[in-house]
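Attaching the record inline, Q. Sequence:
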Amino acid sequence: MEIKVNLNKRSDRTYKIQIGRKDFSSLKKLIPQKFAPDKCIVVTDSNVKRIYNSEIKAVFLSSKEHRSFVITIPAGEKSKSQKVRDKLEREIIKLNPSRQSLLIAFGGGVVGDIAGFLASTILRGIKYIQVPTTIISQVDSSVGGKTGINLPESKNLIGTIYQPAHVQIDIDFIQTLPEEEYFNGLAEIVKSFIIADEKAFGYLEKNINGLLKRNPQTLQYCIKQSVGIKSKIVEQDENETGLRKILNFGHTVGHAIEACSNYRVKHGFAVAEGILVEAQISNQLGKLSENDLQRIKNILEKFGLSKNIRRKYDFNSIWKKILFDKKKNKNGVGFSLISKIGKCEYNILVERYVVKSAYNK
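Structure, as predicted:
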């Protein structure tokens, strides 16, 4: 199954997203045939390296056409930092890459974001491919070219938009995810369907058990639909000047929760809280019906994503983090809000007291 991301009708920036099962090993042939790199530099994390060390050797390190190297960073959101970026940057530079070198991000969203960021800056840009191994990275961070690192003030304050040359999504990686990481990833699927696909949201409601049991066919449908939604949006608005902002639904509050927790709260769980709050804002402003609001609450609860994590953080602290968010402008903070399941609006300025009321609901 293949999805092509066409950017501004420029063939040099158009890339393919390959979605399937048991096809990770196809990269062994694809890399030398398509990219012919002088060397491959694989960036992964300690958990992925431990689980997939033999696959890394078989697929990335056995090539006779080019030299290959593996660099490992600590697993977890805290690695998406200036300190780890600087260390990783120095390690890559020591390998003396050229503009013909290929960087490979093999792991979850943290690996993809930091490796993509470095790919965009080293030698003013080298090619990189995404091999996402978590749900969040497969449906969200590996697609669209957003890269970045976190600061104490807020999430992703430093970053670039730099498209990968290829994305390889193997559904079978999901089967090895710990339970917490698996459910953490479902939030981004729910978000995609809330903002753009009412039919797919209905599919979620009817196939809850399939997702709870990690049914491959159910997962493949949900991942394909989510990737398709994001790809179409990115094609229309690569640099987030308009439509792409709808992908931020749930993230304005969600990112603030992550920052307040010093990134101890996982991204998906924080976004789920953000979805609840921002759906509530949509309802309070008269945009979203009570019925749709309840459907959203029900699906998050059934996936174990309605955890009331936000109760740990005072709204004043959350608001301070929101004011650092990249979605602010001279007139205030622009939210992406939903008028119904499947339809989202952006650049909706919301006053502080409305956000506070929804947050404390």
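Strands lie at 2-5, 15-20, 39-45, 67-73, 102-107, 127-132, 166-170, 328-329, 332-340, 343-349. The mean pLDDT is 93.

More tomorrow.
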